[in-house]
């Protein structure tokens, strides 16, 4: 006979969160920059065990908890496949001269004083066109990080500009998955949702661009002509550089705009990079892999899973031109699996719902309800480690209350994006934060204060909520106390 399951108390729900915060703080204190390469994973698994022990105490069966963990991990498998494909793509695009060509042209065109603002704007345009912050970061973002290295500019500020632009475009693009998911959960129309988001999104982006311009004017980058000339010379000595090598990038952007699913699109882009390397980088391929067709094919195959390593005699250039491969993403996969395990236990056993119920009870006004929604989305990003969960769970939990108070569904859908989509890359163990770390090689803990759009937008949304700006109502709220 099954034991009766007790509803978790608020203390039950708080204990795993406190344990997680304490362990993550200890991880960063003891291991510093290496905390994401094992220590954070242990912290997440130990916290999941604490949550599971509390659930067992409340009458849950281990078999049911385990099923929840498996389901939670399965949610992230799509992201894992994309991660592996992105690793392969970065490797072959380095070998094909696609990324080196982008770096070369970027060094020729971009001025250090406008670099951060230009980076943010370029990523915003690309992300808006293709509807994917991940693809934008893995392509244009990687190249711009290389340009920043060439100009001697801050990697953290550049990564923050990439993330800001990529998520602005992703948030308002009708091609974006999250932009379609939020109104679907809230019950609003896609284009009404996008129009309503403009009130918080556009001012936030303009403010971010202004600050990036000011950062650029005060930048201490080493943009000496000798440094840049050395990098440009190294690029042309090791790669055939031309606009023709941007064809794999154009092909990927076209596939994304035609709404091809991310995994096959990115993997096709990686394979196309391998073909381009064989066709146009023959000298480099022979130098790294040896003479003959078999040796060349073996090199491309190796690049797909293990990336590329180039020695030019210039340490900066070697860092820019080496990396990629599926193996470079395995630590991120490990982090995502551990984070999703913790989030799954919290959700499956009702601990997360218990935490959120307290927020809902404290939200008396429309403004406080919207602020509570945004805070819940941020909390879900931290606890469940997945932006989709941070949209779906609060959407389901708050939808009825928005209807009861006569608030239009676009208020909820906008809040889900302001709190869920935007803050996901700021959490190091979230799927989005871990992905950006793997692609840009800068930890969210380092770029968080430079991801200006991602910081400004939720704050502005809360200010709007309490001031009553652009809160749309359907009808007078129904009578009766809040549930």
UniProtKB/TrEMBL annotation:
Keywords: Antiport, Cell membrane, Membrane, Transmembrane, Transmembrane helix, Transport. It is found in: Cell membrane. The keyword Cell membrane applies. GO terms for molecular function: antiporter activity. It comes from the Bacteria. It is a multi-pass membrane protein. One of its GO terms (cellular component) is plasma membrane. InterPro entries: Na/H_antiport_NhaC, Na/H_Antiport_NhaC-like_C, NhaC_Na-H+_Antiporter. Residues 165-469 form the Na+/H+ antiporter NhaC-like C-terminal domain. The chain crosses the membrane at residues 12-31, 37-56, 68-94, 114-135, 142-168, 197-217, 262-280, 329-346, 366-385, 447-467. Belongs to the NhaC Na(+)/H(+) (TC 2.A.35) antiporter family. This is Transporter (NhaC family). It comes from Gallaecimonas pentaromativorans.
